Amino acid sequence: MKFVIVVPCYNEEAVLPETTFQLSRVLDGLLERNAIDHGMILYVDDGSKDGTWSLIRRYAEENSYVEGLKLAHNVGHQHALWAGLEWASAHADACVSIDADLQDDVDAISAMVDYYNKGMDIVYGVRRERKTDTFFKKHTALAFYRLMRGLGGDIVYNHADFRLMSRRTLQALVSFPERNLFLRGMVSSLGFPSALVYYDRKERFAGESKYPLKKMISFALDGITSFSVRPLRYITYLGLFFMLIAILAIFYGLCSYAEGSALPGWTSLLVSLWFIGGAILLACGIIGEYVGKIYKEVKQRPRYFIEQTTERLK
Ligand code: UDP
Ligand code: MG
């Protein structure tokens, strides 16, 4: 079986030597016990601005496992991963996607391959505990998973993009035409036989996170809006709710008028004006999110361009 480890890299020159070393060790182990017939590490350089690509090229010469694709510009983690998965769907029997920074436990790969050899199509790497994450990240992440589940997204708790996928899973995945990628949701919606492998997530080996808070928020919003249309329905509920309140208020106003105790009414007027104004803006914003998504989808732009590959991939 041909096995590929896909690793998206953006400005990762600080971690690549160690990543290459550790992933090679994992592949050595798998080959030794005949769990795979052929192994490859496919680095996808997501338009890095540091020496990532020259490192990848050098490792490709020195190390027979290493290959690389260089994307023409930075398209973001999900699309870079997609580029690697698309390549793997055409050339491999199974592939594991993993981040370059060694936060995910490379030793879990071996257990994933064993599940594959027992007939599983998807093996999710699931974090056992989030010891190394900050309090803030831990709680925002949990809230995000809950929200996604609540909105009907079928996603696996504490699973990021560390997973094994079989060839047919990859082929099913790359047949999705959408441009707004939320891979972990897309994969779990495929429904092929799957298993979980638990691991402890570590600190980033070197370098710093490429996901600052701003990117995290926009990733969460993308996740929700590309997976669920329920926020649209909630707007309707919200609208109905406000209408009901308005009717009650009118009734109350008429009654107090009949009693002759009508108030000057400034307070209630202003409060409801602001409140409803806010609600309408919020609703517009949510609709705008979806309209933006639709716009992006109808354009059907290519997800990435490959600028260069390592020698053997040519
Ligand atoms: N990454 C990428 N393109 C980007 C940002 C990140 O390919 O625009 C890669 C990065 O090199 C790493 C993975 O995506 O392999 C996850 O990024 P990071 O570790 O910085 O995110 P975090 O673990 O902090 O959420
Ligand atoms: Mg990381």
From TrEMBL:
<keyword id="KW-0812">Transmembrane</keyword>
<feature type="transmembrane region" description="Helical">
    <location>
        <begin position="266"/>
        <end position="291"/>
    </location>
</feature>
<protein>
    <submittedName>
        <fullName>Glycosyltransferase family 2 protein</fullName>
    </submittedName>
</protein>
<feature type="domain" description="Glycosyltransferase 2-like">
    <location>
        <begin position="5"/>
        <end position="171"/>
    </location>
</feature>
<feature type="transmembrane region" description="Helical">
    <location>
        <begin position="234"/>
        <end position="254"/>
    </location>
</feature>
<dbReference type="InterPro" id="IPR001173">
    <property type="entry name" value="Glyco_trans_2-like"/>
</dbReference>
<keyword id="KW-0808">Transferase</keyword>
<dbReference type="InterPro" id="IPR050256">
    <property type="entry name" value="Glycosyltransferase_2"/>
</dbReference>
<dbReference type="Pfam" id="PF00535">
    <property type="entry name" value="Glycos_transf_2"/>
</dbReference>
<keyword id="KW-0472">Membrane</keyword>
<dbReference type="InterPro" id="IPR029044">
    <property type="entry name" value="Nucleotide-diphossugar_trans"/>
</dbReference>
<keyword id="KW-0328">Glycosyltransferase</keyword>
<keyword id="KW-1133">Transmembrane helix</keyword>
